[in-house]
Amino acid sequence: MNAYYLGIDMGSVSTNLVLMNPDKTVAHKLYLRSKGRPVDSLAAGFCQLTQQVGPYTVLGAGVTGSGRKLIGSLIGADIVKNEITAHALAAVTQEPEVRTVLEIGGQDSKMIWIQNGVVQDFAMNTVCAAGTGSFLDRQAARLGIGIEELAGLAAASQHPQRIAGRCAVFAESDMIHKQQEGAATADILWGLCKALVQNFLNNLAKGHAVKGPVLFQGGVAANGAMLRAFQEELQMPVKVPRYYDVMGAWGAAILAQEAVAEQEGQTKFHGLDAEGPGVIESFICTDCSNACQIIRTRGAVWGSRCGKY
Amino acid sequence: MKVCFPNFGSLGIVLETLCRQQQISYVKPQENLEEALRVGTRLCPQSVCLPMKRLLGEFVMAAQQGADTALFLGGGGPCRFGYFAPMFQTILDDEKIHMRVWGLEAPAGNRALFLRDFSRLLGVNQAKALRLLLTGVQTLRALDNWEETRLTATALLGEEGTPPKERSAPNMALLQTLLAGWQRKWRPILRTAQKAQGAAPLRIGIIGDIYTTIDPAINQNLQLRLAEMGAVTRRSIRLSDHLLHLVFGNPRQNLAARPYLNRNIGGFARETIGAGEQMRRAGFDGLIQVYPLSCMPEIVADGILTDIRRKQGIPILRLVLDEHSAQAGLQTRLEAFVDMLKRRRMAG
């Protein structure tokens, strides 16, 4: 039976799984839409993975992504780590010389600066989620095109429309006005990609020099138009790594390997219970007027402001 | 007269103790942040910052419990912070809520006028009012020191090792004695713990606007979260020091800020820059700037910090706060920041 390190990226939009060989290469990967039910989609992911791969042994498990705490406590992860560290680690493993990582996920966007394999600085969008994957998804849906077709359509643009990229709400009304004035869909889409890239760099780069090699990862890197917009704006080559869509999960698997080595080779992984989501309970703590919602799983409890839980 | 005061870090404890000591009846500030924000957001101008929304919400809810006088630590201009007191008053009047808003600030820098008003509020003569004021600042200082000790204990010893939380006492002198006793007990414990650990813990400076850096409910326990990750934190603004600086100024900090910003532009921009630069020189591992969305002075400071980071290479994390209440986003950024600082240190 094959043995792998398991990496899970429990993102807002997608659930990504990676099975990694002990030599840090990716053996299998899976990219699934989360659809707002993290535990269900993880269970579905495990099923699909077993169908693809056959029976396998887990040497260690790492979890990252916004749902990492919940999933980590449910499956007995060896390590639960933030997305920045996971993404950077995978980028360095893929491209040891990498200096800049651009990452656009479902709800957040980040930029990571790396030197000699160590993260020097990072920036992440703060108050709003404008310019992230879910916004592109929504605009494609509004125009009635699949997100996969967006790049091809934008490529046909002759005269890109200027779209206000600062705020997603402004961008949407701007796009609607342009379309009502008769602008071609291709021009609007290409204009939107350019606006998003400009907004991304204005918000995150903030005076940081962008040095190559540059890697573009996260689900949005599949979008050729966004890649082209980044290359035009930065005026340098931008590479999309082979496993761009599961870099976080890959990083989590690498972290799991490190963690298991520190635990003398023993993994804490026990997988999901057959009863699945049934093991989560939540209640409202009434000890003070904050009325926090407390979440409890078999392994952990969290959610209070005062630190009681 | 029945007074109320907002949640504002340790200021609430001092004001509560002062009221008790002077037998002034008072309403404790509303603990429920979300409820206060709900009320405040309904009454405030839409584009105003988070602190104003919460403070107004707390005042309105206190009025429902019979309070007729609201105390708060006012700010100087030239940014809109200087107009908080009159804006609160106007909104409350418009809503037909009978409450006098009393900003603890010196009108146009007139300290004599301040003392006169303060003595009237307490119903004592001016000499007594001055003494109470000084005791108040001393008590605040003891609370600020205790908070730092507690957080350092969490960073070094973990959650189990954390000493007791401060609480109010019948009067300010007793509160000071209590805290001094705790300090005597805990300082040696922390020294021993630090020696036993060998490597010095990460040091992170918290800089930015006063309210969002000071109040743990607003910044979602920022300093405690960092302490739980093993980092020792220091804030650019401690209330006790701030009050002294209002009277005596802070020339050393202004000097540190001078190459970047040589005047007061309102709010705490100069403090943010000056303290950030001082912390960098003192060898802090990183800085976290915290401010409410749309805060003008901090936006200016943000731009200047970019320059400091570029020239000096110190990592700076920005946290812009608004009505968000989910905690996952904040936790992710803090974990990533602490992780990065640790790995940077390991790499030398």
Structural class of chain B: alpha/beta
> What proportion strand of chain B?
5-15%
Largest interface in this structure = A-B, 27 and 35 residues
Q: In the residues of chain B, how many domains can be counted?
A: 2
What is the CATH domain class of the largest domain in chain A? Alpha Beta
Distance between the termini of chain A: 41 Å
Q: Characterize the biggest β-sheet of chain A.
A: 5 strands, mixed
Tell how many strands the DSSP assignment of chain B holds.
8
Helix content of chain B: 55-70%
Which regions of chain B contain 5 or more consecutive residues with pLDDT less than 50?
A: none
User: What's the assembly state of these chains?
Assistant: heterodimer
**Strand arrangement, major sheet of chain A:** 3-2-1-4-5
Can you tell me the CATH superfamily of the largest domain in chain A?
A: ATPase, nucleotide binding domain
Kindly provide the name of the CATH class of the largest domain in chain B: Alpha Beta
Low-pLDDT stretches of chain A: 274-278
Task: Provide a short characterization of the protein structure.
The complex is a heterodimer of chains A (309) and B (348). Chain A has 309 residues and is of the alpha/beta class.
